Amino acid sequence: MTAPEAPRAAFDRVLLLVVPAAAFMLLLFIYPFLYGLALSFNPKEGGALANYAHFFTTDNLWPTIWTTLRLALPATLINVGLALPIAFKMRVKSPYQRWATTILVIPITLGTVLIAEGMLTYFGPKGWLAQFLQFFHLYEGSIRLTHNYWGVLISLVISGFPFAFLLILSYITGIDPVLARAASTLGADPRSQFRHIYLPLLAPGLAMCFCLAFVQAFSVFPSAVLLGSPAGPTRVISIAAYEAAFEQYDYSMASAIAMIMGFVQLVIVAAVLGARSLMYRGPVSAGKG
Amino acid sequence: MDHDFNELRLDGVTRRFAGAGGLAFAALNELTLTIQRGEFIALLGPSGCGKSTALNCIAGLMQLSGGSIWLDSTRIDTLPPEKRGFGMVFQNYALFPHMTVARNIGFGLKMRGLSDANVAPRVAHALQLVQLTGQEHKLPGQLSGGQQQRVAIARAIVIEPPLVLMDEPLSNLDAKLRIETRAEIRRIHKELGRSTIYVTHDQDEALSLADRIVVMKDGVVQQIAAPHDVYAQPANLHVARFMGYRNVVEVAIERESGERVTVSGPDICLTGVRKQPLADGRACIAMRPEEFTLGADPGGSNTISGRVDNVEYCGRDSLIDVVTASGTRLYVRANGAPQAGDTVYVHIPVERTLVYPHE
Ligand SMILES: Nc1ncnc2c1ncn2[C@@H]1O[C@H](COP(=O)(O)OP(=O)(O)O)[C@@H](O)[C@H]1O
Ligand SMILES: [Mg+2]
Predict the structure, then answer these.
(1) Most exposed among A52, B58, B115, B318, judged by the fewest C-beta atoms under 10 Å?
(2) Is residue A151 exposed (0-12), middle (13-18) or buried (19+ Cβ within 10 Å)?
(3) What fold, for A56-279?
(4) Shortest Cα distance, chain A CAs vs residue B75, angstroms
(5) What is the pLDDT of residues B269-310, one digit of tens each?
(6) Interface of chain A against chain B, CB under 8 Å?
């Protein structure tokens, strides 16, 4: 006697709907990635790893990793750290919330180049901020907030904050406010409510938000050129890749730098998401299961 | 916090909301009530009558628009909920989804600064009280609705609050579980000896649980009385309807002598008991279906004759629709099984025929 054959799972034709998206991914992401990866192991001269060896032994290349991290990590921390309390304050629906959200979101629509333009006129040595401070004798020294590290950091905050804010706001409004009310009847003051209810339920979302904001900040390019000092303290890794590709016409080297850039991002993201897997990630509503 | 009390006094507690067209309406209007230590009070009324509003005002989750709340001689309506220290059980449980059952229950103790070593035995005792021992390491999402509800109750009572507030705690449970949990709530209340305010729209729940029932309608208190009085002597027609007096008939007043009123309709002539002052010659009589008796001949007074229109068999008895010659429909619950079309005579005692002003 033979065991009855298990019925084969019928092919679900709805799955065909993912085909266009999969093809799109393959064409626009995976193919260029694999192409670049192969190219990076195919240097102009030397063995397969020559580009990577060159990167890590050249004094104006490998430090770009730190230069970029030094901008991207603080910018991400500031954005997430600032967005969290502000979004928390605005979790309750009010006309005021609509206005504030609109104002905070405007920078998203501007784009980095426009932000850089604005910052140059506002924060420059003869900009409005300097004139204002000097007019009221608040600060007499010279103001240097452009063409250096701070210029780029400020621009990363301006362009990255709305994104972090919107993401966190949507996470917070997804948490049932009745949980905080329940906590308050059990003796939790607003601080404890935040610490014991909101924060643990938000943590996975914050980790996600951190990753997305970090990746965005790590690939900073226009503001590093326009607002920073691209030869010195804000010579970020994307500038190095740009120079290799369009000044030395060494696409193979540029690919290698892009791969290194991707790897560093991957390490940070993997670390954060690894920590996230240790947190509670179930539903964030009260109700019955 | 944790102040035990002898009485909780609500004095004209009012809460208004901005209603349609910006007009403020009172979801809760002038609720005045004194609750003694150990009492079980039920707030009873249809959905939207302001029960949750009342409970939230007492808990401190909602600010008052008027009135005051007193614990003995301390005014508490300006305190935030965490300073009042009342336990609250929410309609949808509101368990913290990221905490285990034990941590959910221990939360209030932890907020009071108790060490883990002191929290554990009290949590264990609370788990035992709601018969959930062995479930302490599960997350709320892994429990059934009934179990979640018992965790919510344990979480509210483990802090030994002087007052426990419950907002329709059984409405999400199925019928069988509802009756079991109801008995358990009563047992826990007795065991703790503290006061409970229990919100429900189900009169059976209110009748079986409460020492006193507060019947509400549109934010206004209609009657505050012991279950038996609310059941047998509703203060007005609204309460009567809500308590199951399904037969309400508008009639003319013939004669009033003392409490007794004789009324008549086209083919009805009954004597009943007056519950409210009457005026302008007309009144409404209210009668419960189960207080009729069914006969085949017109024996005695307070009897109405009619034709059986429909019979619904309910096991112990039947629900019989009787229509009089002029078309008045009466709902009668009685033994015996008349056929549709039969002519029957229904009798109701004078003291069970309640007379109210007409609407
Ligand atoms: N936050 C609120 N804003 C405006 N109206 C409310 C609010 N909460 C309750 N109400 C209104 O108050 C009335 C009473 O509500 P509620 O106390 O929840 O009734 P119940 O609990 O008896 O069903 C309802 O008409 C409801 O629409
Ligand atoms: Mg309610």
Answers:
(1) B115
(2) buried
(3) MetI-like fold (1.10.3720)
(4) 18
(5) 999 999 999 888 899 999 999 999 987 777 778 899 999 999
(6) 176, 178-179, 181-189, 192, 196-197, 200-201, 280, 282-289
* pLDDT averaged over 10-residue windows placed end to end, chain A, 289 residues: 55 85 88 91 88 90 91 95 91 80 81 84 82 80 82 90 91 92 94 93 92 92 85 88 90 93 93 86 62
Distance CA B294, CA B317 (A): 12
Does the C-beta of B48 come closer than 6 Å to ligand 1? Answer: yes
* Domain limits, chain A: 1-40, 56-279
Mark out the alpha helices in A189-277 (DSSP H runs).
190-193, 199-218, 222-226, 237-246, 251-276
Question: What would the pLDDT profile of B318-355 be if each residue is shown by its tens digit?
Answer: 899 999 998 899 999 988 778 888 899 999 999 999 99
Closest-CA distance of chain B to residue A212, Å: 24
B25 in contact with ligand 1, CB cutoff 6 A:
no
User: Which residue, among A94, A201, A288, would best test binding to B if mutated, counting the most B CBs under 10 Å from its CB?
Assistant: A288
Say what the pLDDT of residue A188 is: 93
Choose the most confident range, by mean pLDDT, from A110-119, A132-141, B17-26, B189-198.
B189-198
* Reported confidence tier of residue B221, pLDDT bands at 50, 70, 90: very high
What is residue A16's DSSP assignment?
Answer: G
Cβ neighbours of residue B272 closer than 8 Å, sequence gap 6 or more: B260, B261, B263, B285, B350, B353, B354, B355
Separation of CA B242 and ligand 1 centre (Å): 20
- B107 touches A: beta carbon within 8 Å: yes
Tokens of B101: 């059952």
Which residues of chain B have a CB within 8 Å of the CB of A288?
92-93, 145, 148, 172
Spatial CB neighbours of B259, under 8 Å, sequence gap ≥ 6: B273, B274
* Structure tokens that stand for A269 in this block: 């993201």
Residue B51 CB less than 6 A away from ligand 1: yes
